[in-house]
Amino acid sequence: MALHQSGEDYLEAILVLQKQMGMVRSVDVARHLEVTKPSVCHAVATLRDGGFLTMDSDYFLHLTDVGRKVAEQIYEKHRFFTERLIEAGVDPETAERDACRIEHVISDESFRRLKAVAKSES
C-alpha cells in the first residue's frame, strides 16, 4: 500500500508521541496534529488495513515493523531538514513547517546524498 503525505504524517506523529509518552491513543494524535478525532479514526483504519499499525483492546496504537520503519525514515528527514534550515538562519517555527513539506517530496537518493555531504562537512 502506497502512503500519501497525510499517512506519513500520522505515522510520524505516532512515533514521536510514543517516544514522549510511551502509549498513544487516537485522541493524543488528534491533539498533536490539531485535527479532529474522526479524521484520526479514518486514518487509523486506513493505516491498520495497510499493515502499518495495530490497535489493542485498550485502544492504544502500536506501529508494526513496517509502520515503524516508514515513521523512522520520515522522522529522520524531518529532523535533518529542520536542523539544516535552523543552521541556515531560518526561525525554528518556519524551519519545522518547511521540513514537514520537504520530507515528503525528496527522493531517497537525494536525501542520502545530502546526508552524506552534511556528514562529510562536520
Write a short abstract of this structure.
This protein is mostly helical.
Task: Tell me what the structure shows.
The protein has 122 residues and is mostly helical. The protein is 73% helix and 7% strand. It has a 3-stranded antiparallel beta sheet. A hairpin with a 4-residue loop joins strand 2 and strand 3. The radius of gyration is 15 Å and the shape is globular. The mean pLDDT is 94.
Q: Order the strands across the largest sheet as they lie in space.
A: 1-3-2
Helix amount:
over 70%
Shape: globular
Question: How would you spell out the order of helices and strands?
Answer: HEHHEEHHH
Task: Give the CA-CA distance, first to last residue.
Answer: 37 Å
Summed up, the helix count is 6
Quickly give the structural class. mainly alpha
Q: Radius of gyration, rounded?
A: 15 Å
- Outline the biggest β-sheet: 3 strands, antiparallel
* Strand tally: 3
Strand portion:
5-15%
The overall pLDDT average reads 94
Indicate the multimeric state.
single chain
List low-pLDDT spans: none
Looking at this protein, list some descriptive labels.
7% strand; 122 residues; 3-stranded antiparallel sheet
Blueprint (SSEs and pairs):
Blueprint: H1 5-21, E1 24-25, H2 26-33, H3 37-49, E2 53-55, E3 60-63, H4 65-87, H5 92-105, H6 108-121
Antiparallel strand pairs: 1-3, 2-3
